[in-house]
Fold:
Amino acid sequence: MRGCRPLSKTETHSVARSLARASRNVRIRNVALWLLVNGTGLRISEALALRVEDVTSHAGVRSHVALRRGRTKGARSGATLPFNPKIRRVLSVFLRKHHPAPQTGSPQFFSDRNHADALTRNGAWRFLRGAMDDAEVDGQTGWHSGRKSFCKAIYEALGNDLISTRSAMRHSSVLTTAVYLHADRNRVEEAFLRI
Structure:
């Protein structure tokens, strides 16, 4: 969503805690989806298009998510994105509880009404909006905030390397990546005072 701002780590954790307090049947699904978007930079449409086999193998949760070409923005190319250990743990719990014998082609993130159907963008928006409100996260926020938060985190983890960050974000242009990296106004003001 254009205009969404990245969240601080505190805000991201607050939203995850709010999601964990949701209805028992779907809370692990909601937390898993939130952590996946924040920990891989997936677009919400890409995450909702995932099938169980994109995340698991016969041995359990993979060490990465396999994005198929037709499920990425512009359907340009597929991608393989690694999971951090926290995401793997949450996905393992989620799969054990809700996909004990996964069928090929089953949606990774299913709808509330029918596990054979994928969760829709509207359904995902509704539960995220409620969690954002519960966590008192203000401003222009949404699922894209998770992608922007990932961009900021991966940029810092890569030593502020814009080219590598562009690659991690799967952007076609480094200019797009630069737009995702909002300036920290407090940091800018502190720099002014040090000059």
